[in-house]
Hints:
The chain has helices at 13-18, 45-52, 66-75, 91-94, 117-123, 159-182, 215-224, 290-296; strands spanning 2-7, 23-28, 33-35, 40-42, 57-58, 79-83, 100-105, 128-135, 145-152, 231-235, 238-248, 258-261, 266-269, 274-282, 288-289. Helix 5 (117-123) runs antiparallel to helix 7 (215-224). It is α/β, with parallel strands linked by helices.
Amino acid sequence: MRILFMGTPEFALPSLEALSREEVVGVISQPDRPRGRGQRLSPPPVVQAARKLGIPCLQPERLKDPAVLAWIRDRKPELIVVVAYGRIIPPEIFRLPPLESINVHPSLLPRHRGPSPIPFAILSGDTETGVTVIYLSEEMDAGDILLQKRVPIDPEETARTLEGKLAQLGARALLEAIELLREGRAPRIPQDPAMATVTRKLMKEDGKVDWTRPSEWICRLVRAMDPWPTAYTFRGGTLLKIWRASPEPGIVGRPGEVVAVDQESILIAAGEGGVRVLEVQPAGRRRMKVEEYLRGYRVQVGEVWT
């Protein structure tokens, strides 16, 4: 099958690699962006992979540029596959292939539509998530469902680890969806809009710990914000990232107050219960276990983190 692939980040790589048995006639990805400490212009992961595979790439600033549509037409795709491209696909593009245009989305749609389904699944306290292959439509992530695959969310799951699992699951789901399309057996299951929830793009401020919230919610925040923007608090006016923490029931104290310090953890009172901080990262330093942090920083019972 002649397939045009649209994707940008690392999440899309397993799906692109899975399409090696098909004829990928082109890749559309986002333009090069500044990356790393040096802020050097670098191509997206999908472009780097496509170049190694010898697949022609296009990185337009605007999908509505007529030259983009002409480039796609020249490749005569039978199917367009979208995996984490990062922008809305206009109808004149997704309606072009004779088969369909499909999207691999990392949630159990219609739950968690939008740009941040993985961290919001963790933050919401969901016990399971998955991937959904949908037909593209004009409304974001609202197309008919072709198939879904489910996976449990482990108690210690972070957005980083869950993304890796869903990337692999999405690749397997994509291959199954293509076989259903090839055989003419692909279903179209309308989404129930009454069940829809919508996520938004994460910002740095979303990682700020609100110590008045219940400890369970704060610990979900820590896991949901890993790897970005990371959960953080302020200790004496200095930012301190929190990478790992666990809830502790029955703790009473002023929200943000240090109520106990032992060799391996710092116990902070929350709005309900307490948060046992296990791994942190001081400003300008690498992440470390609390045991190591306490060797260089003195933490006193009674101080308040904000």
